[in-house]
Amino acid sequence: SPCPMAEPKFTLMASDDDENDDDDEGGAGRGPLSDRLSETVEAPSLTEEDICEGVEMVPSHKTNETPKTTEASETTEPTQPTEPTQPTEPTQPTEPTEPTAYPWSMWKGAVPVVFVCRFDVRRGNVVEWCQPPEAGLEGVEFKALCAGFHELEEDYVYFKHGSWFGLAAFQKLVVDDPVHRNVRLRSVGLFMNSYAELRGYRRYLEDRVSDLNESEGNYTNLIEFYRQHHQQETPMSPAVPALREDMDYIGSSFLLMIMYFGPSVFQIWKALFLRLRILFYTLVPVGVVCDRVHCACQLLTTSSDSPITPHDPNPIFYVNVADIEQLAQMKFYVACTTEKVFAEKETLFDVFVDGQIVRVPDRKTAASLQLTQADRRRFDQIRHWTEEYAMNLGAGHSTQAEEAEAQRFITHINDALLSSLVDHATHETILYASDLPYERPSIASHLTCGETYRTLGLDSKDLTFVRSLMALYNIQAETRRYRRDCYG
Asked: What pLDDT score does 424 carry?
């Protein structure tokens, strides 16, 4: 069913004397606003107003807890048995081939490298085996075996190595082997040209790492796999559109991410639109926060009707201390890490997300990303809309349907925001902001003071964000604070 928001118009609301308010909204300026801009922008505490409005918040003392993520199943349709129409010789049973056992048929990208990493009691993390043998894999062993993996039985991780996207499946096996401290820590992984292409191989890698832990040194299956896949046709489509369109793969992760962060998810939304450097910190497991990076990028989804396509947020997934030099040279990215040392290196990021806490070290950037009442209302609306949609579907509905509706809601918000900004620039109108309340973002409202202004669904504290957004996309539209004597 279509999204109920006929035209969610974002009301950008501000007050006159705009020229004198830049310091208030931009940085270490004067007065109460500067006092409100702390170095840490946290998810709001649960208030009586929130309770009345039905906004569900997660207590801040759970900031390091990792939500349980439901993974989309990666099964294939079973082969339908056929009955012979006439007596024939009995058919010899055949074992299922790899393409029918794992969902690879829809991906045609080549697999340039397959590798195995393990923990060695004398040498630490090492690349145990790779194909082709001459592949340059320096440093891969520290991403395939992330910090903290030794605490888990199994996990997975996505990461980048040069221009390749990598996926590795990890497993710990307890054995009776004092020489190796009675444990085997191993990861099996591969590289492809885009992140979206990796999704069909995770279960296969999990099976292979389990086999290798049970039977060390047996690479026969991996060798045959590489022989079959390393020369396949490389897809022409870019990675980012596939990254945003692949909702089936992430199961219920997108909606879980929104509910996990609460209204603060729109701080991340603003940071993505402004093409900032976003780093998620988490304790293990790593796979769930890699999915969170994926879902964060989904917040930029727009339709084909949008006048502007948001910039690629550059998802690079898991990073460690070996990536510090590379991160220092990047102007924007979305990444995650399990290494707490990054929290002290504020020059490497613009936004540091620790659990549910969104920390913005720079005060001017914090002004653009501050949490507003409009963010709370928008979160409340998307929560109620997806719940209502689920109830209409009834028992037994697929969570992917809720995911699709949540994604459509975000897409509608993004289209309305960008269309409104471009419309103001095209018609050379002045974009005002005020603190006037409005009923619902889904209802088109207009403010009149000599002329009618289109609304944007934000509020006065978002004026700095919109100015930064217009500057980034070179949108020429004047913004002022709304004169209170114009209120009718």
From this structure: 75
Instruction: Please give the model's pTM, rounded to 2 decimal places.
Output: 0.72
Distance of alpha carbon 337 from alpha carbon 354, whole angstroms: 10
Mean pLDDT of all residues in 49-55: 35
Residue pLDDT, tens place only, 236-279: 333 333 333 343 444 448 888 999 999 999 999 999 999 999 99
Strand partners, 434: none
- Average pLDDT taken over every residue of the chain: 74
Element containing residue 464 per DSSP (H, E): helix 463-472
Residue 468: which residues within 8 A CB-CB, separation 6 or more?
274, 368
Q: What share of the chain is helix, strand, coil (3-state, %, to 5)?
A: 40, 20, 40
Q: At what angle do helices 399-427 and 253-261 cross, to 10 degrees?
A: 70
Residues written for the chain: 488
DSSP letters along 3-14, please? Answer: -S-S---B----
Q: Give 482's contacts (C-beta < 8 A, 6+ positions apart).
A: 13, 14, 15, 16, 432, 433, 434, 436, 447, 449
Q: Which stretch of DSSP H or E encloses residue 478?
A: strand 478-481
Would you list the DSSP string of 66-115? ----PPPP---PPPPP---SS--PPPPP-PPPHHHHTT-TT------EEE
Contact residues for 485 (Cβ-Cβ < 8 A; gap 6+): none
